[in-house]
Amino acid sequence: METSALKRLQVQRFKPEENPEIHYLNSERGLWSWLSTVDHKRIGLMYLASIAIFFFIGGVLALVLRTELLSPAQSFLDADVYNQVFTLHGAIMIFFFLVPSVPAALGNFILPIQLGAKDVAFPRLNLASFYIYTIGTVFTLVAIITGAVDTGWTFYTPYSTETGTNVLLMTLGIFILGFSSILTGVNFIVTIHKMRAPGMTWSKLPLNVWSLYATSIIQVLATPVLAITLLLLVMERALGIGIFDPALGGDPVLFQHFFWFYSHPAVYIMIVPGFGVISEVISTFSRKHIFGYWAIALSSLAIAFIGFLVWGHHMFTAGQSSLASMVFSFLTFLVGIPTGIKIFNWLATMYKGSIDLKAPMLYAMVFLFLFTIGGFTGIMLGALSVDIHLHDTYFVVAHFHYVMMGGMVMALLAGLHYWWPKMFGKMYSEVYARISCALIFIGFNLAFLPQFVMGAQGMPRRYFNYIDQFQPFHQLSTMGAYIMGVGFVIMFFYLLHSLVRGEKAASNPWGSRALEWQTTSPAAPHNFEHTPVVIHGPYDYHKPMSEFQLGIAHGHHGESHQPETLETVAETGTRP
Amino acid sequence: MAHSTASSSAPAHLQHHFVDSDQQFESSKMGMWIFLVTEILFFGGLFAAYIVYRAWYPDLYVQASTQLDTFWGAVNTAVLIGSSLTVAMAIRSAQLNQIKGLIINLYITIGLAFTFMVIKYFEYVHKFEKGIFPGQYYTYEGIAHEKANIFFSIYYMMTGLHGLHVIIGIGLMIWLLVKAKKGAFSAEYYTPVEITGLYWHLVDVIWIFLFPLLYLID
Ligand SMILES: [Cu+2]
Fold it and tell me: Do the domain assignments include residue A486?
């Protein structure tokens, strides 16, 4: 039906206007127009601002921790404060920064444009998700001010039910946050299913959309389990219901099962969207069709699926039966396969491509390098006997940061630089972008490579002092953290400069074939002034640009100036 | 098709970012289905806890469930099933453009949901009088099992959360009623009625699992 419908569409070419006078940033003005907006692009930017703030707070906390660790003995933080600081660093970075980073911030901005839709399926729900996120953050900030939390971001019972700090408020905040994540997931799944432009078939979806699809599925299936877990924890503290409390007949390991049933898939919420960004960037800056489209698309779904079956690898030392541990270990190795498939496909995409090392591509390279290290060390931790030795050491900390920061944050930065012109219609300084990327790369490795070594030598995580033998490693690590900090400060300033007096960006500064580059920069209020019609995939660099700019003229509902055209659209069915 | 007349005015209920009413209806329905999946996983955590503790303390479950009133539990089951029927009839009325039927069926549904909550209230009060409170406040001595509080913690969590869903459902149905009286729904547009009905069926189905799992252990 779809092909026959396509044959009947009368399309014409719409060349995107350069430097449009009216776009989504200035079509309405004033603070209220932002706070009450249902435009997915503006909501995406509001998320972006929020996660930037939380990344800054979490980053400063990290620098505080690293500074304390410069010397083996206590310097300026006592043990309790140290516990609170690393808990806040972890909880803020994970729940307030990483989880919403690519899906809610970049995803909201780019997903409907990539689909050729005017908005997500439920724009008001989308705004509600943002406010739910805000309310959750307020709860947490209040918890920080009124006595912090010292349980670590994992909130393990029984300590979390007994400690005198404000666990109740903090977990409530994260509980609320979970709903924001769930609703975003629901919204994205429906959007991808129902809102695609004519001709945008499943086989022509950008890989970023496939990644967001897999991520949304995880968000929808895993987050409710976190919600009920945290609710039980809250009830445990408020009413002493005893489900996780051995004194009342409960079982604390059950909490770990519940928690990791969410939180292992959650690390895929934090990395799979990054894969999507990397696929887009590598194809665009290699000027080449992506290698293994379906392999990359389906491996995201495979990771999402297998990711639900491996949570037990966090409990190898928690008294889990050895049979269960063996199964979980095996399944953990299995996740390496789809991940490896992606990496090889990206490498194959670059092979014989005309590679342009602009800032987004640089970050994609950094991603490949760091994420591969993070992935391999993950396999090491998944091995039963090795894990006994490495469990709860800095090795785990380093692995996690290589995956989350070396993986997701680098992907986020790649995406941010890649779509920056589309967001703001401005270019940033390529020179400073490269300097900052280099500093972050050097600083990152300096900060976390030594942690692998000292972890393997037995330095346990979450300690505020340590024996002298580890001091050189800690000092290197702290040095690296400072260098990274400098890199981010430079980034802040050149992006700010770009916003204020950056050069105007062209509609398609990278020469990409993907749909989001076939509209104006910044994007039009409803993304496109026409209904885009897609006949080629987003990576078909062998086809001329004109064939990617097709569409049907349309008017908005109620102000249609060409009723005949509108009729054609309706009768041919615009949904694939 | 909504646009076949090609008039310059789209139907009032059609939001700007949808192409036509069908797309809007399908999207809303799919969104609700996915949301229901999250609800199942949400309750799934509690069902998992239920299963774990039942495997550990099977005789506790048998003993403790005798404290639950099977008769009123059965009445409540009938009440909820009845309300699922009336909500389905409400949707049917909307499809047939019988707005009066829609309003009457919504009234009955709200009444039945309210009845459910009243019965639940008396069940809770009856237990509180005996000292059957959740967790550490549990003081009842009539069950010869030291972990008796765990069963009731699970009982209160499950039925409490379910009750919360019933209350949310009542709120939604009142909202539908107000809109229906204003003439917002017709055979062309009844999406909110349809998806609230879906939600209500789920609330009913969860109770159908809770009733035998909690009341009918023997
Ligand atoms: Cu894991």
Answer: no
Task: Identify the structural domains of chain B with CATH numbers, from first to last.
Answer: 34-215 (1.20.120.80)
Residue B132 CA to residue B142 CA, distance in Å, equals 10
Residue A114 distance to chain B (closest CA, Å)? 15
Q: Note the pTM of the prediction, 2 decimals.
A: 0.90
Spell out the residues 6+ positions from residue A220 whose beta carbon is closer than 8 angstroms to its own.
Answer: A182, A185, A186, A189, B34, B37, B38
Written as one string, the DSSP assignment of A406-446 is IIIIHHHHHHHHHHHHHHHSB---HHHHHHHHHHHHHHHHH
What's the whole-number average pLDDT of chain A? 87
Q: Is A401 left (phi over 0), alpha (psi -120 to 50) or beta?
A: alpha
Q: What's A75's domain CATH number?
A: 1.20.210.10
Structure tokens at A315: 């409990």
A240 chain-B contacts, CB cut-off 8 A: 134-137
Residue A121 Cα, ligand 1 centroid: separation in angstroms?
32
State which residue of chain B sits closest to A119, comparing Cα positions: B17
In a shared domain, residues A134 and A79: yes
**Picking from A251-255, A464-468, B133-137, which range would have the lowest pLDDT averaged per residue?**
B133-137
- Show the domain range for A564: 1-30+516-576
A26-58 pLDDT, tens digit per residue, is 888 888 888 888 899 999 999 999 999 999 999
d(C-alpha A335, C-alpha A355), whole Å: 29
The answer to whether residues A53 and A191 belong to one domain is: yes
A337, two tokens:
């396969």
Is residue A5 predicted with pLDDT exceeding 80? no
A58-87: per-residue pLDDT in tens?
999 999 999 999 999 888 888 888 988 888
A-B CB pairs within 8 A amount to 145
Q: Which of B127, B201, B22, B73 lies closest to A571, judged by CA? A: B22
What DSSP line would sit under A262-284, residue for residue? HHHHHHHHTTHHHHHHHHHHHHH
Q: Are both A78 and A195 inside the same structural domain?
A: yes
- Give yes or no: residues A157 and A226 share one domain: yes
Cα–Cα distance, A157 to A232 (Å, whole number): 11
Contacts B158 to A, Cβ<8 Å: none
